[in-house]
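Propose amino acids for all 411 sites.
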């Protein structure tokens, strides 16, 4: 069959790689490069080259089954990473790194702060009590309501769980509070984050995440059309027509490997189910800056971690995150290579190396309900939908949803 794949993020390249072994596959990509959120930048410091990721960074072998098999098939290697987490509250001056007891109390005054002890005790209580949500079917209960109903301390909410959620899902704290509580906890439980030990080892790709995109491109047996934004997709009893500014092509099947809102805009005549399901998925725009400005990092050296959440003093509900790429990617660079979300105004312009804009899914009661209706539209009218937004929004979710489409097409 002739199959069109619209988008070249993890879902698009995964589907295209395996389907091209049996079918004629054409990838349409609006950008001049492949990869979507897989985005590696080659930074030169003191005549040395450092590949730095600003989108997809880490994975683990325990949870990322489909993605890891993809890497093995492509012959791509990985290395252990560091997944330490710190929080800085610019209003109170609090700093801690939740890795070891020494780093947890890197500010020795925390030993004398009752608020800090309440936070630590509530972390342990959350690990103990939150798994009960997994037995619930209530997706209407938000994380914010769950925390309030169960009388969790402000210290735990403001200085730990919301900053952690902001870091994980690349979104503001207020959006994290609106996450369905069961969904939030199911992710943490699935990734073994509701315990203090025996967590999975996280890994990064040697040479940067785009290494696997390059390996895919070398082995891809189909047609690749870069700089080719699709303007419309129409369907009839004979198949599908994919239209760009240059031409239009006929295919037997089309796979939307772009975001759901983009797919909905491209459909010439969406069905009512497609309007309802795809329209229920919303996305948050995030500005991402690669830079060397250490002012956004904790003041105490022991508080420096791979993931560094910062609650800003002038916006108590505003939380940003800075990734310390030297630690995450094992880069021995002479300067700190940092990736910060949504805080460009606080970064010294002279220290900015790259700027990107990504869109991440927002999880609400409505979007979760839409996820459960995927079968209503997936595979109907010669049309398939894949993307990380069908799961928790991570690389494995994109690979898994692509494998489901492959299974549908190949029967």
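Proposal:
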């Amino acid at each position: 069959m002739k199959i069109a794949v619209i988008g070249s993020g993890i879902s698009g390249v995964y589907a295209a790689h395996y389907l091209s072994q049996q079918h004629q596959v054409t990838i349409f990509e609006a950008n001049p490069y492949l990869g979507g959120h897989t985005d590696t930048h080659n930074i030169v410091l003191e005549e040395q080259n450092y590949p730095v990721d600003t989108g997809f960074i880490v994975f683990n072998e325990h949870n990322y089954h489909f993605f890891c098999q993809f890497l093995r098939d492509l012959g791509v290697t990985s290395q252990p990473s560091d997944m330490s987490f710190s929080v800085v509250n610019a209003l109170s001056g609090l700093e801690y790194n939740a890795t070891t007891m020494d780093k947890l109390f890197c500010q020795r005054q925390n030993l004398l702060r009752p608020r800090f002890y309440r936070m630590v005790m509530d972390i342990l209580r959350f690990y103990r009590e939150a798994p009960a949500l997994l037995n619930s079917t209530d997706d209407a209960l938000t994380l914010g309501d769950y925390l309030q109903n169960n009388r969790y301390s402000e210290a735990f909410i403001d200085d730990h769980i919301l900053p952690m959620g902001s870091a994980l899902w690349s979104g503001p704290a207020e959006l994290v509070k609106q996450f369905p509580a069961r969904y939030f906890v199911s992710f943490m439980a699935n990734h073994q984050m509701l315990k203090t030990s025996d967590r999975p080892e996280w890994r990064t790709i040697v040479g940067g995440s785009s290494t696997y995109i390059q390996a895919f491109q070398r082995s891809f047996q189909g047609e690749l059309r870069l700089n080719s934004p699709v303007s419309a997709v129409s369907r009839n009893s004979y198949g599908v027509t994919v239209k760009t500014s240059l031409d239009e092509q006929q295919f037997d099947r089309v796979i939307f490997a772009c975001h759901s809102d983009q797919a909905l805009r491209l459909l010439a005549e969406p069905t009512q189910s497609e309007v309802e399901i795809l329209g229920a998925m919303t996305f948050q725009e995030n500005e991402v800056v690669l830079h060397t400005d250490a002012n956004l990092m904790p003041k105490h050296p022991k508080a420096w971690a791979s993931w560094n959440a910062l609650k800003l003093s002038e916006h108590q509900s505003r939380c940003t995150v800075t990734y310390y790429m030297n630690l995450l990617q094992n880069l021995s660079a002479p300067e700190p290579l940092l990736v910060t979300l949504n805080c460009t105004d606080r970064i010294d312009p002279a220290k900015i190396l790259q700027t990107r804009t990504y869109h991440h899914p927002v999880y609400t009661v409505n979007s979760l309900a839409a996820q459960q209706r995927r079968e209503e539209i997936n595979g109907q009218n010669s049309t398939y939908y894949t993307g990380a937004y069908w799961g928790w929004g991570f690389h494995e979710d994109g690979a898994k949803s692509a494998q489901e489409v492959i299974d549908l097409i190949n029967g």
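The longest helix spans residues 114-129. The longest strand covers residues 352-362.
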